[in-house]
Design goal:
The protein is α+β, with helices and mostly antiparallel strands. 12% of the residues lie in helices and 28% in strands. It has two domains: 42 residues, no CATH class; 246 residues, Alpha carbonic anhydrase (Carbonic Anhydrase II). The protein is globular and about 55 Å long. The chain starts with a strand and ends with a strand. Keywords: Extracellular matrix, Lyase, Metal-binding, Secreted, Zinc.
């Protein structure tokens, strides 16, 4: 293929074998009103394609729009330096919430043993062995070490000494983290529903199987119902503040925005104080995480009895934000972060009490 330009640079001559084409260029008149404009033209010649594109001579001057974009980029860069947190891949909104998770993550379509579920006491199978195989739940006072706003909830994590076993399991488990789910009003919020009653919040204490797995990540990815042992505590409204939670909840003002994290002083919160008095009375079943990727790796222990929070403390939860400091959005508060109940699909729910 050969190309040549005429001397006056107003036409372009292209040839290939016996095929040839001449492209003439002319400048439009200042008053030309033609509305059609082509940025490029594709010409086919045999087995070849010629792509003709319009371009302008390089200039050192920046147009107003380019300067504007650069200034915006600089401002965005400064904002990103303040908040180097990627966008939430999922949430509890209409567009990215639980009803859309299967579209966002198609692998969820194949999962059948999901959580949370409805629990009806009369339909659960009583297992006397559970009552005789009482829980051992030992944790260091300094087990809870950090408090973080994840954008989905608050989360308290720690790596202090903990030893959890017996009950419905034989292996040894170690504390990983705890968090809560709640609703935008006091008539919803708990994930599990017991005997038809919806409560305003639910606490999850997550422990991982250190007997069978080397790391919490490996336990979560196992898709075996022994990877995690999660204790669910349903929360009711009481007239006075829960004194065991006051110190922790008062620290929420320091983690208002997503990504904010602080270290906890010694003895701020005790895991045992977050559990009901009768920890040996519970329901248990095989299920999943209630957040993507909803791995089916959980042995659930849902306590029969509840703990209480005041309306004031529930409102403290609703003041946490799902956005980082630099994000501007109308729906910035975490006011509804629970997954609806899922089908039981033939699973048996056991109870430890008659």
């Amino acid at each position: 293929m050969a190309t040549n330009s005429t001397r006056d640079q107003s036409s372009l001559f292209v040839s290939f074998g016996d095929d040839q084409i001449t492209i003439s260029l002319k400048q439009l008149k200042p008053d030309h009103k033609e509305s059609s404009f082509f940025a490029s033209i594709l010409i086919e010649m045999g087995d070849f394609e010629i792509d003709v594109r319009r371009s302008q001579k390089k200039t050192s001057r920046r147009s107003t729009s380019v300067t504007h974009r650069l200034n915006n980029h600089n401002r965005q860069t400064k904002a990103e330096e303040k908040c180097k947190i990627p966008p939430l891949p999922w949430d509890y909104s209409i567009l990215h919430g639980p009803t859309m998770w299967c579209r966002m993550f198609p692998q969820l379509l194949d999962k059948k043993f999901q959580s949370p579920i409805r629990i009806y006491t009369d339909l659960c199978e009583y297992e006397p062995l559970l009552a005789r195989h009482s829980f051992i739940f030992e944790t260091d006072v300094n087990c809870c070490q950090t408090l973080e706003n994840t954008g989905h909830s608050f989360q308290v994590s720690g790596q202090g000494y903990s030893y959890i076993t017996r009950g419905p399991v034989l292996d040894e488990y170690q504390f990983l983290q705890f968090h809560m789910h709640w609703g935008e009003n006091d008539s919803e919020g708990s994930e599990h529903v017991i005997d038809g009653g919806h409560l305003p919040a639910e606490l999850h204490i997550v422990t991982w199987n250190r007997t069978q797995y080397r790391t919490p990540e490996e336990a979560m990815a196992s898709e075996q119902f022994d990877g995690l042992l999660v204790f669910a505590v349903l929360i009711k409204i009481v007239s006075n503040d829960n004194s065991d939670c006051i110190k922790l909840f008062d620290l929420f003002s320091k983690i208002t925005h997503r990504g904010e994290k602080i270290n906890l002083d010694y003895g701020i919160i005790s895991l045992r104080d977050l559990m009901p008095e009768h920890v040996q009375k519970y329901y248990t079943y095989d299920g999943s995480l209630t957040t993507p990727m909803c791995n089916e790796c959980v042995r659930w222990v849902v306590f029969r009895d509840t703990i209480g929070l005041s309306k004031h403390q529930l409102n403290q939860l609703r003041q946490l934000k799902q956005t980082c400091k630099t994000e501007k959005t109308k729906n910035e508060f975490i006011t509804r972060n629970f997954r609806p109940v899922m089908p039981l699909n033939g699973r048996t729910i056991y109870r430890s009490f008659a």
